[in-house]
Amino acid sequence: MPSEQQQQDFYQKLREKVDNWLKSRSGMVSKVGSYILVAPDLFHLLMKMMLDDRIDAKSKTMIGSGILYFIAPIDFIPEFLTGPAGFMDDVVVAVFIVNAILNKFSVDIVKEHWAGDEDLLEVIRRLTHSGSDLAAKVPAGRLAKRFIKL
């Protein structure tokens, strides 16, 4: 597991990359900008939940898979080819995982680790609701629906 400092460094770099992209011309016209904006916060949430002793080993296996998906250099929409828009599939996978965790554990446990500016439940509700169509189009979303179960 990465150290606390390594986690923070990755989170800050990811946040900076997304912020810079959203300020760029391609980020401003992107239809997925609002989804990409929460990618760093979802990654941070997964990392913090992984370290929480109240979450069981089976759930941590799923959380760990989400973390690995975030940091994998090659996935269904690789960031090195598409820039921050490539985090769309990572967000879809993370939302499925967080939603599954919220259905199994107290909301307070999960909210405790949320670093985002918006309310966690509102973010998950918005992304789940509007992301259903996107998840059906993103290969990672179809895989997550099929294989991620608690």
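[next item in queue]
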Amino acid sequence: MSDVKELNPGAAASLNGLYRRYSGWLGKRLRGRVGADEADDVVQETYLRLTPYLLEDIRHPKALLLRVALNLVRDEHRRLGSGPIDLRRAI
């Protein structure tokens, strides 16, 4: 079954399905960059930020999740004044 078919039955079910399917993958991608605790926080915030997209067809959910998460990490680093980060390393 394609990711798109899985994501559109209803917003709550879609978000739950996305979380079950990709939260572990996303957390692993982030832990090497920001540490375990912050990665868990970013994963949760990523799913909260994803809700507006659930009304649309999401063709590449992993790409969307990673982009939202990396944007959150970048925004937090900017807020803290941590200097530039190389987003390519996080991918």
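[queue empty]
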